[in-house]
Specification:
four-stranded mixed β-sheet
């Protein structure tokens, strides 16, 4: 099992060409392994920048907290 913790915000393109934002929450079990819960947001964005701006405004995201894969 990998101990690499994913970045909390994933910006990805869907099949229709829109960008979607997924918010990931990381918590740890009693043995110290990460448990990751990913929540796909319902909003659609035309650009990745718009998705990042939404994350900044609504989730207080900071630069460097975004993943694209």
């Amino acid at each position: 099992m990998s101990h690499d913790i994913p970045r909390p915000y994933l910006v990805a393109r869907d099949t229709e060409g829109n960008f979607r934002l997924t918010v990931r929450d990381v918590r740890y079990n009693s043995q110290g392994y990460p448990i990751i819960t990913a929540t796909l947001q319902s909003e659609l964005f035309k650009t990745a920048t718009a998705a990042k701006n939404h994350a900044r405004e609504h989730f207080n995201a900071q630069p460097g907290q975004y993943a694209t894969k």
